[in-house]
Every structure is written in structure tokens, then in C-alpha cells.
Amino acid sequence: MPHQHVVKQGECLSSIAPKYGFSDWRVIYNHPDNAEFKKRRPNPNLIYPGDVLVIPDMAPKQVEVSTGGNHVFTVKVPKTVLRVLLEVEEPFAYELKYRDVVASGTTDGKSPIEHPIPADLEDAELAAWPDTPGNEVARAGGVTWALKLGHLDPIEAASGVQGRLKNLGYFSREVDGQDGPELANAVAWYQSASGLTPTGVVDDATRAKLLKRHDGA
């Protein structure tokens, strides 16, 4: 019988689905009982703590096998993709660490970093430095970020505005979803830098500009 799941901070559809035995989060997202949720959250990668999802029953799968032999079944392990775009105007090298994995590479400064990760991954560390082969000084002078995966909230929430402004360097406080002078100052700063009237109020035009720059939407 279908039951409900209340979304917690840090969860996303890709991490929720494996908890209930689904390898594809679309089975949950596209279920008819989640039509209202889907309408409210048109971007399945951005859901909000407190959202309620209906988890459908698992459809049993049957296969026919012969008796008296050994049979191998392959189980899909859910994966998702981490995609990070740094606002850098020149090629850079990077190193992504999570759990016992260390992945490295380079980009031209315009293309995003893309790497497959486990669907339930919550934390990772990303370091980047100028792509100067053999120059350890450049690597030592790089920048390192602690990534909290699944923690970015929808743009309609104050915490979603704070998170995006923080990622872009306009907001320095912790993301708490609370309005206040610090958020208003950050919004005004972003508005001024984006060619908008610096009112400090998050209006539709500000949300649209912020969403396009941060999310590429």
C-alpha cells in the first residue's frame, strides 16, 4: 500500500528513491498521486524540506530460470551526476573527493565539472587551481569548497535565495531561511551588480536573474 515520505533537508529524489527500492526516481516523481507535488516542484532536482511525497508500491518483477543451475542477476546501483560550473575565465584543474574516491581533471573554464556520484551522497570536497602543468605553487594557491549535496532549496524560499547568493559570493552568513538586514544587503548588492534597481527586496525580476545565473534556467 502506498505511503507518504516527508522530505528532510539534504534529501533529493535521487537519494529518496533507493531507500524504497527504486533505481529510478522518475517512478516516484511521475506517479499520479504526486501530480500536485510535481506541479509545485517542476524541477525534480529542487525539492523542499517538509514536502510530502507518495511512495508507490513496488511492482514485483518475475523472471523464468531453469532449475539445477547457477544464475546471475544484475542489480542496478542508482547513480546521479554532480554538475558544478565555476565562474572562471581561464582553464583550471580540479580534484573532487568523496568517501574513498578522488577524481581529478581539467576544464576550459567555460564548461562545467561533471562527475557521476552515488545517489545518496551528501558531502564532497572540491578543489580548483589554475591549470599550470607541473606547477605545485598554483595548486597550493587554489580554492577548496565543502559541498553539501541536495541542500539547495527552491528559489521561491528565502533559504533558496540565500543559498544561491552565498554560492555566488554575495551572502556570507549561514543559510537559515530568515529575512533580515544581511539578506536585504546581499540582495541589493546582487541587484546592483545585475543591472537592477538595488531595493533589497526579492521580486520576480531578481529571482529570474538569480535563477538564470546560478541554475542556468
From TrEMBL:
Listed Gene3D superfamilies: LysM domain (3.10.350.10), PGBD-like superfamily/PGBD (1.10.101.10)
Residue ranges occupied by any LysM domain in the UniProt entry: 3-55
Any one Pfam family match given in the protein's UniProt record, by short name: PG_binding_1
Coiled-coil region list: none
The name this protein goes by in its record: N-acetylmuramoyl-L-alanine amidase
Annotated source species: Sorangium cellulosum
Lineage: Bacteria, Pseudomonadati, Myxococcota, Polyangia, Polyangiales
